[in-house]
Recover the amino acids of this structure.
């Protein structure tokens, strides 16, 4: 098996810089859009064979060093008796935000209700020749969707909830941590060699609020995935990087607003993942290669570097350009 991503994550020597992309499976691929003409996004997630097919589609086009499980961040909600739908161009939406009482009384995860996820992992591991990255949303980010009911710019209801109902917050975060730990552990037991915990919205918090309201629950989820390479990814998090060194994770993923060398220093020896601005893929090809080369060179200065975007692949991205970027990173990142 090609293992350069796993080796880089552990700070071990590699022949070249490993590369994969968040959202490398999905919306920018014509073959995915053809599937979406027949199935909804959530229908694709529920069917292990279809989810595996979508996961594998980009690997037929580009030489990435890992597959990322095709799923949705809020799938675990189905195992908690909650429903949501996905609005095109907007994201996941719940029927209504949870009240303080509902949030504090969130039920335990019924893993059988989402068993199609570990089944998809098992199916993929039987055919893959490179690592599979499983994933889950982090407790704060999942809680933000529950408390807002829909995507938000700065999540005001969630931030207010922390301070108005601290006891209810702790009960909600504790239950989510337990449930998400079960969900992530099931993926590892099914064969995922790496897992990424997405904390897309934690950057709206101060470092002080991160310490008391978020970090203990992150530790609980990440510890459950021990045995796999653990990647923690957050956006808008430059002010929190020093906090991430305390997390039980091998890799810290950062967005394009963070200097990789500074991220490596603040993460205290952890490997770093990132951090090309995905909008660069829509711009000038020569400028794209220059920026990718700069990131690869910065990555040589950290303990281990995994090339990725600073967020997901944008829908208008040309798949051929993404494939060319993979080859460019492998060429520029080669060790002699």
């Amino acid at each position: 098996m090609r293992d350069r991503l796993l080796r880089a994550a552990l700070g071990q020597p590699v022949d070249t810089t490993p590369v994969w992309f968040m959202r490398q499976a999905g919306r920018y691929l014509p073959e995915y859009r053809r599937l979406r003409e027949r199935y909804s996004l959530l229908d694709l997630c529920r069917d292990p064979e279809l989810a595996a097919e979508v996961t594998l589609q980009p690997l037929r086009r580009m030489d990435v060093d890992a597959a990322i499980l095709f799923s949705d961040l809020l799938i675990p909600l189905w195992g908690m008796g909650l429903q949501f739908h996905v609005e095109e161009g907007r994201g996941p939406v719940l029927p209504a935000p949870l009240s303080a009482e509902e949030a504090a009384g969130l039920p335990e995860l019924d893993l059988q209700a989402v068993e199609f996820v570990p089944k998809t992992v098992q199916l993929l591991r039987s055919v893959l020749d490179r690592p599979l990255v499983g994933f889950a949303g982090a407790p704060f980010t999942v809680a933000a969707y529950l408390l807002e009911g829909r995507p938000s710019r700065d999540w005001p209801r969630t931030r207010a909830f922390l301070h108005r109902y601290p006891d209810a917050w702790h009960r909600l975060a504790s239950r989510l941590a337990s449930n998400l730990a079960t969900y992530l552990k099931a993926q590892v037991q099914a064969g995922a060699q790496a897992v990424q915990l997405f904390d897309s919205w934690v950057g709206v918090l101060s470092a002080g609020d991160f310490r008391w309201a978020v970090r203990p629950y992150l530790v609980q989820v990440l510890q459950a995935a021990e045995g796999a390479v653990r990647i923690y990814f957050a956006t808008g998090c430059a002010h929190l990087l020093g906090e991430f060194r305390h997390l039980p994770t091998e890799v810290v993923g950062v967005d394009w607003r963070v200097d990789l060398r500074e991220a490596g220093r603040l993460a205290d020896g952890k490997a770093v993942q990132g951090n090309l601005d995905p909008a660069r893929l829509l711009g000038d090809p020569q400028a794209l290669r220059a920026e990718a080369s700069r990131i690869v060179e910065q990555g040589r200065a950290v303990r281990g570097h995994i090339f990725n975007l600073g967020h997901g692949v944008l829908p208008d991205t040309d798949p051929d350009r993404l494939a060319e970027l993979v080859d460019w990173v492998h060429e520029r990142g080669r060790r002699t």
